[in-house]
Amino acid sequence: MFKLNLKIAWRNLWKNKGYTLINILGLSIGMASCILIFIFIRFQLSFDESYKNADRIYRVVTDWKYNAFDDFSAGVPIPFTAAARNEIAGIEKIGAIAKIDDIVHVKDDSGKEILKSNENMYFAEPEFFDVLHINWKYGKPAEALKAPNSVTLSEAMAIKYFGSINNAIGKSITLGTKTQLRVTGVFEDMPQNSSFPLKIVIAYQNLYDYYGNKDCWDCINSSLSSYVLLNEGLSKSDLDGAMAKFNKKYYADRKIEGNQVNRLQALKEIHFDERYDNFANATIARSQIYGLAVIGLFLIFTACINFINLNTAQAVNRSKEVGVRKVMGGKRKQLIIQFLTETVVLVLIALLVACIISELAIPSMQNLFKNQVTFSLFGHPVIFVFMILLVAFVGFLAGFYPAMIISGFNPALAIKNKVTLNNNGLSLRKILVVVQFAITVILIIGTIVIVNQMDYLQQKPLGFNSAAVVMVRMPGDNISRNKRDNFKERVLKIPGVQLLSYCQAPPLSQDVNSTNFTFNGAMNKDFEVRTCKADEDYFKLFDLKIIAGKIFMKSDTANGYVVNETFLKKVGINKPENALGKTINTNGINIPIVGVVKDYNDKSLKESISGLAISSDKNQYWQAAIKLEGNHLLSTTKQIEALWTNTFPNSIYNANFVDERIKNYYESERVMGILFKVFASVIIFISFIGLFGLISFVAMQRTKEVAIRKVLGASTLQLVKMLNGSFLLMVFIANMVAWPMAYLFVSRWLSGFAYRIDLSVWPFVMAMVISMLITLITVSFRSYKAANANTIDALKYE
Amino acid sequence: MIQLTNIEKYYANKGVKNYVLRLVTTTIKQGEFVSIMGPSGAGKSTLLNIIGMLEEPTYGTYEFLGENVTSLNERKRIELYRNHIGFVFQAYHLIDEMTVYENIEAPLLYKKIGSSERASRIADLLDRFNIVAKKDLFPNQLSGGQQQLVGIARALAAQPSIILADEPTGNLQSAQAEEIMELFKKLNQEDGITIIQVTHSEKNAQYGNRILHIADGVVKEDVTVA
Prior knowledge:
By secondary structure, chain A is an alpha+beta fold.
């Protein structure tokens, strides 16, 4: 019976090749998108889930609550870990780990340098690996990271530096300019879905070469973090009391500003909490994952609607078969199974096609994420489970309703081909078409708004000029620092170089240093001032306008602040001139305001401008901003690089243009824009081939009516209008349904930007015009053919 | 075998009852070959549909094999279709997507007959109707007469005790029609299968042994053919 069902299914699909093709095309594209989305979501959700005791591991983070804003950091004060180990009950293990980036030199046996590379490195206490278990190929963390100047490498790094794991043990690498580190252990490479992309792990004692404030409870760097493993059977809330006590003792009692507190964050939250950094620099909000899942559902739903519509429409053609089968003794259940078999066969074919499409699309998907992750169709067994579930789900969703309709025909009528789909069926079809197009319209509107907003972000004047400014990273050691004046002098002589300014960061940067302060003698409790260190040429180079006072004098240390308008607004000064001479006190040092700069965007346009104070401090210049001119940017940058490498032979040249960097801040929006464009086109495509199928069917059904009307004198145009009318009406209603929902969605998305386009009616109107126009074209194409068909052919069989 | 008592069928249209059948009372015994005759619209097909349980009468009782089947649930009705009733249609109604062999096999599958038994029964039918050579063809590759032969073979496959035929020769030329009617006669006389057919043709009616004349929904005459 089953075999026969399959055979009949195959013959039926073959007989209606056109509709089968439409169904398979729609379903396979929908399914392929779903599979890709699933692979992506699975990858994201799998972050950090496979570590031993994962549900007992927590990261300690630091939160602040000022009157006007909250702040968050993934780091803890350096003394935190040691204090917590002794004082907080309920912690089984606690280990600190910190991240820096610096240069690693590898020498061969004869002492010749064979490799120099810039790497992210981690300083970890051995206890860290009691919290987070990883597999060790050689050595144990308890011994390997015990002594200062020991280093452990990942398998890949060991092979890169020394050729093999065995070769690496006992060898040395040089960190920065002088620190010799001995390789004492090798661990397995970290998986891609880990928030800990550890490659080089150094004994924690060496951290103090980089961070001096061993005892500062007020100094928090998001790269210095601490992880805990709770005692078995305890959960986060069991430690609330101990944490509160700890916070009171170290922060509240010491009058540390901003209501600073430490709290525990579950390991599994690290990848999904965008407020905090992580070592992998990869966070994704759960809402984005859910958004994608919803789009996936939309896609599969649209494809299923096509299927349901075409199949119920075609049901009439199969009424005779149903009647005959019934009088032969076929039960309704058996008929339903037969029709479901047919659907499942079709869905399986669609799945095959979908797999091919997915496989072809995976490289572009990896490209979208800058090839940082490898995706694979066969990456995980759960992907197969998903495919099976998808087939079952789609088969059932798409097949069940048509099967119910078809198998429910009254045999006496069915045999005589007198079955007409009752109005119920027709109106359900109409509702489905409306739903389908509402989804399409929502996506079109979303796409238009996202694209507009991205254009706006790229075109909005930021208040400074960053054209042709290249940022070059400067080494921070004393010897290199002393060469800076000389370097500057020589760079300025290179043709095509206009200006050079040493600074911490370009005007717009997400690397934020902020501090609490006393303004004119009064302690400020509303906000932290963002501090920016730069030399006096910074203003000219970036074309920043001074509206009151002047730029501070050339100096190695701070002798005056230039603040921005927002700062003045926040401290309640209306006239810029009034601010001059007032003092700002940070870290106990009083410095007067000497100038006021016109506001410019200092953070990505998702955020508003911060209160800002610029001053000079030679020891905190990490970069050189170099303004170029002329048409030979490439040759100029090459010359700069040569000079740089020559001047700082122990370091690695790293440079990029400010404009590029700013663009990178909108990476996730860029990806979202692309995804929307792709999915909107896919849904438009699916919806319209479905529409084409449906109009083909309607045209065929009404052939006789059309012929009779023609004989009665209707013109082709009138007939086309008649056939098109109901479809245009449905798409119009779909637009009306979609607008409010789309409005809610886009206005919520836009509210995530401090600077955003005004939401006008145009994206909505445009979506309507696009959808109506494509409908008109799709439908007219087929209805014109029907209206022009030979009348006699249609009538002669009666 | 079949006992119809005061069967009535009407369609109500805006409060006006349009009678199709009025007070039909008749008995059909095992082994009879009954022809139902009458002008168009007399209610012949409706009567046959009621006998075949495709339609329900508005009033009256219908007993099939001594059991009241006036309104039967689907499961029981299907049991009767599987075991007792074979249908033959004017337009043959073979399933277009299935070969001759598969068409004949279908009711056996629904009846859950084992595969070897199935094969032998089908082989037997194909042989008996001289259509062995056609078993792998699809319905649209056959002439009308051949299609009707397959239709009858299919109706017989489940070994029913009664065959209901609605104008079985209506779409056929006279030579083919004669062949089909001879076949019915043979099935009736040799195998003892009860046959009820609806027909327009006086000549076809003569093949049976009883004729019910119907006009305006009423049985006018009940004639036994010599």
